[in-house]
Amino acid sequence: MKKIILVGKPNCGKSLLFNQLTGLRQKVANFPGVTVELKSGQFNDFEVIDFPGTYSLHSLSKDEEIAIDKLNEALTDDNTALLVCVLDATRLERSLVFGLQAQALAHRHNKSIVFALNMIDEVQRFGLDIDADKLSKTLGSPVFALSAKALTGIAEFKKALPTLAANPAAVNNSFSHLDEKQLLQRSRDLGGEFAVNVDLVLKNQNRIDAFLLNNVLGGVAFLAIMFFLFQSIFTWATPLMDGVETIIAGTAMAVTSFTGEGIVSDFLNDAIFGGLGSFLVFVPQIMVLTLIIGLLEDSGYLARAALICHKPLSYFGLSGRSFIPYLSGHACAIPAIMAARTIESPRKRLITMMTIPLMSCSARLPVYALLIAVLIPENQYLFGLFNMQGVAFFGLYFFGIVVALIISLILNQMTAKDKELSDMPFILELPTYRLPHWKPLIHKVLNSGAQFIKRAAPIIFFVSLGIWVLGYFPQDGDLQESYLGQIGHFVEPIFEPLGLDWRYGVAIIMSFLAREVFVGALGTMFGIAGADENIGGLAANIQADGLTLGAGIGLLLFYVVALQCVATVAVLKAETGKARIAWGLYVAYGILAYIIAAVAANVIG
Questions:
Q1: CA distance 150 to 138
Q2: CA distances in angstroms from 470 to 449, 493, 512, 519, 520, listed in the order given
Q3: Among 260-264, 394-398, 535-539, 569-573, which is the least confidently predicted range?
Q4: How many CA atoms lie within 13 A of 291 on its CB side?
Q5: Bridging pattern class, strands 380-381 and 386-387
Q6: Is 38 exposed, middle or buried (0-12, 13-18, 19+ CB in 10 A)?
Q7: If you write DSSP's letter for every residue of 343-383 in order, what string do you get?
Q8: Which of 359, 415, 486, 528 has its CA at 20 to 30 Å from residue 424's CA atom?
Q9: Alpha-carbon distance 189 to 209, whole Å?
Q10: Which of 26-40, 44-58, 70-84, 165-179 is the most confident on average?
Q11: In terms of DSSP H, where are the helices of 531-578?
C-alpha cells in the first residue's frame, strides 16, 4: 500500500488533520511532543502516517531525533508517495522554517510534497486572508488553505490528495541549494510577504496570557486549576461510581438468585462480584481524570503551565517541560516516561523519568478511593462542590509531587558533574487558545475507561480466582484455616510494623503485578470472610473490620511512593537503556514507601 507522510511543527493541528483524513479519533493535544509514537490510518487506498511534531530537521530533543530519523527512513521507501507538510496559518513564518527544510529533503529523495495551510479559520475570523495560490506558485508546490477543526477546505483537500499521491509531481528545487542560514532568511522573507499580522491574530491570546502568565495571578490561577483537577476526580465521579456499584450489586443478586447456595454461588459472589466488581466501581474516576487533562491539553493551557513551572522546577534540577510528563503521569506513567523525550537536557530528562513513577497514576485511584472512603468522612462544602474526601485526594497527589521534587533535588546534586548529561536551553512555543475538538476528546475519555478495564481486568480476574481458590479451600470458606491464610500468616510479620494484618499483606504482595489488584484481592478475601452477612460494599466491610487511622494513612502513603508496576519498570529500562536504574528505583521506592508507612502507622496510631 502506498503511503502519505504527514509532518509539521508542534501545535499546527497536524494530528487533527490526520483524524479528518483517516476517520480515526487519535489523541489531539496542544503542547509539543504529544505525538511521541507514529500513528497510522487508511485514507482511500493510501496509508496515512502521522509523524511526531518537530520544529527543525536539526534535533534538540530525543523526541525530535526519533521523528527525523523515521522521516528520513520513510522517504527512502519506494512506497512513500507523498509528503504532506502542515503549516500554521497564524504563525506562517515559523512554520515555513521547517516547511522549507522538508521541501528540500523531499527534493533530495525525489518525493512529491504538498502544503496544508491549517487554521485558516483563525485568520479569517479577523477578516484577514492568505493568498494560497500565490504562495503555492512561490514555493513551487501545491498549497491548500484549510481548517481541520472548522472543516474549511477539507473536502477539496480530500478530493485532491489521491490524485497528488497517485501522480507525484516534480518538486521545486529552487530552495534545495540553500544552507540553513539562507533557508531561515527565506522563511522570513516569505513570512513578510504572505503572513498576516501576528499581533492582531493573537490579540485575545495576549490578553489572556497577561493574566494567566502574571507572576502573582498566574501562580494563583495555576494552583486553583490543579486543585480543581484533583477535586473533580472524586466529586464529579462519585455519582457515576454509586451508579456502577448499584448495577454490580443488582447484577450479583439477580445472578446468584438462580444458582442457589453452594460453591458456584460463593465463587460468583466472592471472586467475580467481590473481586472484579470492586475494581470496576472506580473506572469512572479514570474517565474524569482523562477528561480534565484532555481539556487542559486541547485548550492550550498546558504549555502555559509548563512556562509557569519552569523557574520553580529548575531549582530541583528539572525543566518546565517536565511539568507535561508529570501531569501525564497522573494518568499513566508509561506514556509519561516516553513523553519525557521532549526535554532537551539529557540530565533533566533522566531526572524527570526517574521521578515520574511518584506521580499518582490512574492505577492508584481505586486504592486511594477505597481507603479514603474508609478513613475520611464525606463532609461537603460550597453546595456539594467540595468535600473532605476530595481534599484528601489532592493531599495524596500533592504528597507524591513533593517527594518527587525532593528526590529530583538529590539526583540533580548527584549528576551535576556528569558531562554526558549537560544541560540544554529551555525553549517552548505557546500555542493559541482553542476550544477542544469534542469528538476526539469524548472518544479518548471513553477509550481510557475501556483500555483501563482491558489492561487490568484480566490480571485482577486471575488474581481474584487464585485468591478465592486458596482462600476457600480446604475448609470451604474458612479464610483463617485456608491455604491463603497459611501463606498470609507466614508473611504477616513483615507487615505488622505497618499496623496491617496478613490479608492486607497478601493484597500488597499481589499488587506488585499492578497496583489496582489490591482492591480486587481485598474484595475477594473480605467476600470469603464475610459470607452472606456482609451485604455492604468493600469500604463498609473494611470499616466494620476496624482498620485504624494510622495504618490506613500509612497504607495510602505506601501506595503513593511504591513503584508497583512491572510495565513501568520495563519502560524505564527501555528509555534509560540501563536495567540497574529501573530495578534500583523499584527497590529504593519500595524501601522508602515501607519506612514512610511504618512511621505514619506508629506516629498516628
A1: 27
A2: 30, 20, 18, 17, 15
A3: 535-539
A4: 18
A5: antiparallel
A6: middle
A7: -S-HHHHHHHHHHGGGS--GGGHHHHHHHHHHHS---EETT
A8: 359
A9: 28
A10: 70-84
A11: 538-545, 549-561, 566-576
Q: What is the pLDDT of residue 62?
A: 66
Q: Among all chains, which residue has been given the C-alpha cell 518546565?
A: 320
The CATH code of the domain at 3-201 is: 3.40.50.300
Q: Give the pLDDT of residue 601.
A: 93
Distance separating alpha carbons of residues 432 and 12, to the nearest angstrom: 10
Asked if 50 and 148 touch (Cβ cutoff 8 Å), the reply is no
Give the residue, 305 or 179, on which the prediction is more confident.
305
Band of pLDDT at residue 521, cut at 50, 70 and 90: confident
pLDDT of residue 593: 95
**β-strand pairing of 39-43 with 46-50:** antiparallel
Give the separation between CA 123 and CA 426, rounded to whole angstroms.
29
308-320 CB burial, b ≥16 within 10 A, e <16: bbbeebbebbbbb
What are the extents of the domains in the chain? 3-201
Neighbours of 518 (CB within 10 A): 29
Q: Are 241 and 285 in contact (CB under 8 A)?
A: yes
Pick left, alpha or beta for residue 423 (phi over 0 → left; psi -120 to 50 → alpha; otherwise beta). beta
CA 230 from centre of chain: 15
* % pLDDT > 90, the chain: 20
List, in sequence order, every beta strand (DSSP E) within 251-399: 380-381, 386-387
Hey, how many other C-beta atoms are within 10 angstroms of the C-beta on 483?
A: 14
The pLDDT assigned to 229 comes to 77
Reported as a single tens digit per residue, the pLDDT across 204-247 is 778 888 898 888 888 899 888 887 877 776 677 778 878 887 88
Question: Does the structure show a pLDDT above 50 at 325?
Answer: yes
* CA separation for the pair 464, 267 (Å, rounded): 10
Euclidean distance between CA atoms 10 and 95, whole angstroms: 9
* Residue of higher predicted confidence among 476 and 266: 266
CB-based contacts of 108, cutoff 8 Å, min separation 6: 176
Give the three-class secondary structure for 83.
Answer: strand
Residue 320 to residue 352: CA distance in whole angstroms: 11
- Write out pLDDT tens, residues 149-200: 888 999 999 999 998 888 766 555 666 666 778 888 888 888 888 887 776 6
Question: How far is the C-alpha of 301 from the C-alpha of 218, rounded, in Å?
Answer: 11
Q: Is 271 exposed, middle or buried (0-12, 13-18, 19+ CB in 10 A)?
A: buried
| 4 vs 83: CA distance, rounded Å | 6
Taking phi over 0 as left and psi of -120 to 50 as alpha, with beta for the rest, 369 belongs to alpha
Asked if 245 and 293 count as a contact pair (C-beta separation under 8 A), the reply is no
Q: Could you tell me the strand order of the sheet in which 3-8 lies?
A: 39-43, 46-50, 3-8, 80-88, 112-118, 143-145
The DSSP bridge pattern shows strands 80-88 and 3-8 to be: parallel
Rounded mean pLDDT, 33-46: 72
Amino acid at 144: F
* Residue 174 confidence (pLDDT): 62
Task: Say if pTM beats, i.e. exceeds, 0.90.
Answer: no
